[in-house]
Specification:
- The protein is α/β, with parallel strands linked by helices.
- It folds into two domains: 1-118, no CATH class; 131-308 and 338-393, Rossmann fold (3-Layer(aba) Sandwich).
- It contains ten helices and nine strands.
- The strands form two sheets. A five-stranded parallel beta sheet has the order 1-3-2-4-5, sandwiched between helices.
- Helix 5 links the parallel strand 6 and strand 7.
- Helix 8 runs antiparallel to helix 10 (349-382).
- The termini are far apart.
Length: 393
Amino acid sequence: MATRKSDIFKYENLTWDSVADLPRDTPLVLPLASGFDLNLLADQLGNPPRIGLLPSFPFGWRGSGLEIPEPAFWQCIANLLDSLRDDGFSNVYCLAPQGVDPQSQFISSLSASILRQPHTANYETPAFLPPDSERGKVILIPIGHTEQHGYHLPLCVDTVIIEAIAKGAAAQLPTRSWTLPVMPYGVSTHRSSFAATMNTGGRAFEDFWLAVIDALVGRGFDRFYFMSGHGGNTSFLINIVKYAGERHRRIFCATTWLHTSGRIGAAALEKYRTSPIGGMGHAGELETSYMLHLRPDLCQMKRVVDETDFIATPDYYMDWIEGGALAANPPWDDDSKTGAYGAGSHGTAEKGRLWLEAAIKEKADHVEQIHEQYERREKRRNEGWGLWGKFRK
């Protein structure tokens, strides 16, 4: 096999300022799934000095094992590629299995940005996600993101953390839950403040995940738990849960504000934190601790900068469990010079271990509550409670 001339690096392992320093003609490639021939990819791109490989988009396209209508899928891909173009990159691509092409006319222009490679066995005979044998379990849907996390943490923080929590919860309750592959892309409405931050777009994000619920309900699944590792996803996930509940009246679809933030997680934060309020907003004590436990190789603690000088008022401030009556979305660069909101220097691997244990325990508890909600509601429905006995079956 010929030696590859191009250096292929993982985009998500960089810090935002490293991405800001990349030459703008560096090819950046978003793959659908994994297992592609990287030597062939380098040849397809003309063997440039460096190629950035973004996190794989795990499902959604035709033949992926969990497919949704094309407009909802390809709009997310188009928005993600536009995030890179907005940062000035001129060579951005989606890497897809041969035969996976956008058919919808309104997004046909995306075809010029798609690189294709031959099918592999995985693409020809994909496994259903989730397998039909998992009906009756709570389907965990972990969603991270690829975005800036200050000078000392990589772009993949949200994805690494929520994947570990979801896998931990599924392992703790294997007969009660099953987890989808983690989605490494979400919504950042502050995308333009710091380089390297991706954005599916809020409406595209809602359309994508509602279509996923539609597809799974059509296959007989009825309990779902959206688990977000990224704060920018949460308001849109609430909308999705509401739309799904209105559309599919006999399911139970739930979400919550981030991880490690309910009654179990909040108690653990209070017990072990050393930073004051404001120290855990973003790339602060909590996320730094998680990463020091899960991926210390990606942490650059010599570069950590604590930033807690936010414009805060009694009803609007930034911390992991946000407080105050006001919801707002001011530019991030009003409050942060490095991208961090918090005190990353307070992070330790031991705190990360303890908080991960609490987060998994919290999510497992939520799984049991979702089962209880679904089962008690179904019992009432089947007994003809209220309007169910008069007008609905």
